[in-house]
Queue: 3 jobs
Job 1
Amino acid sequence: MQQGLLASILLSASLLVGHVSASEVQPNFVHSLLVDQQLNKKVDELHQYLIDGDIITLNFSLNRLSMPQQEAVRFMLVKQIEQQQLILDPKGTIWLREQLAIHPTYTIKQAGNGYVVTKLAFDYSSIASRVLNQMSKDQQVLDFILAAEEHKLVLSEWLVGEPHQVRVRQSIVLAELDSLTPEALNYLVSQITDGSLSVWLPTTEVMVRLAQISQNSDVYKILWKMRTDQYSVAELGRLSNIAPDPFAIQQLMSATNNPSLKQSAFASLAQLHPLPQDVQQFLLAKIDHIQDGGAVAMHLANYGHQSWLESLPITRNKVRKQHVRLALSQR
């Protein structure tokens, strides 16, 4: 037996003696195994078997190791797969999935402020589970992009189902929309804009992202008709921050059709200096409105547009006259 392995086995025996449970080891012993040069060389050897697809030799070599060295090596190999983001072939994936059924034996105790926690010393099964979940998500990302690019992905089918699956798929949509070609993006947008509001719509979060990436006014019109939540409010704020960008201004004006957002949208438009011509025309029409006119005039007065209000012809428009005079009298 190699000297390093023999030393670690002897150390194992000395550190295990006197424990209440034979499966409980000391943290410094765990560390000694993880930094052992011979064990790390064994991990590199097994790693090569994994890359080569030689799973039989991998398992044979791994199972020949005594405990707890075998468990430490198994842990380091699985951790190496995660850290290197190793792309596994089907055989390697099956091997990794088999690690979920092999339950770690050794535990350590960690003391905190008034408490003691027992943890697995070599928790390779949790790492394997995490890697497999990421592999599954990576595959779903690829499936999403390919289906969208081939015009085969139907959002109303892809974003429904078991709650956890929907959450994962929605996160993929949010993250990958900006990686699609314009043609694929337009294909997804058309599924929203060509339908009826009485049919299916994605969540507000997805709608906001779709609107941002596509820069499609029809998507925004639908978004503003949906129930207001944190995502639509945040998007209104983002548009306000990039105004007087012409597209942003158009969406702010469109947002005034939403009862929950219109005052914020009016305020954002009133904060523009100078007021663009199209905004002047839009707000003037709103001032003449019986319901909204008073609030619009007040926003304009509050944000420094008193001179513009004073310049408006009011003699032939009683509603405008009332709203403008009230707003100016409050200053």
Job 2
Amino acid sequence: MENFELFIALLVLIIAGVLLLKKMAGCLMRTVITIILLAIFIGAAIILRLF
């Protein structure tokens, strides 16, 4: 159950990051931040063994 709670918290953080991206300007900055968010999500998913 703890893993599920961590996954939900991570998902909320990613959604918040995406909403912040919409308010930022600059295509390059958006790309870099999106790649970082995806790397964090995939890393957390591997650690939590979701895949």
Job 3
Amino acid sequence: MKSQSNLTLSAIAMAAFFSYQFSFSALAHNEEKPAAQSERGVIGTTVLPMSIDWHLSFEQVKESQVAKPSDEQANRLTYESELFGTEFHQEFLFTEQGKLKNILFYHSINADSLTCVEQYKQIRKGMVSQFGETKLNELSINPLESIDRAKLCELTAIGEYKLFSEWPQANEKVSLVLDTWKGQAYIGLSYHPI
């Protein structure tokens, strides 16, 4: 495993329960000892990096994992993970040259769900506790005051409603969305280099 001193990352501890498949201790520098490890990743007091080393290779990321990926493609590693008590898929996406280009967590939501906005806001609350307050953007193709609030998940699935928040950092943009992908509503957390 690569020495942590070679990484140029910093992170702050989260007070809320936050566990996920990828152990960010390999990407993030924390003055305290890392939380206990399990097959699903870091459990308990954990960290989200404030900055990512985007030069990490496919093999370096894979070597730093606690468990095996649930899917492995030439430019993608996928793991099962958990954010704030909700199951997520976690993907590490890589360039053609094998360097890290995106870290994505996503959780699919049924269109008939009544709680997608509440789920989004709960995860956003954890993000705000670490990255600070930012604007919650609410978009709809129809006037917001005229949409049926009981059907927000259905409207999200068909691309007519969206929530998003962004936290620009020094080297990356961190964003949280309630959006759709190929007709499937989802909540997504993304780290993307600037």
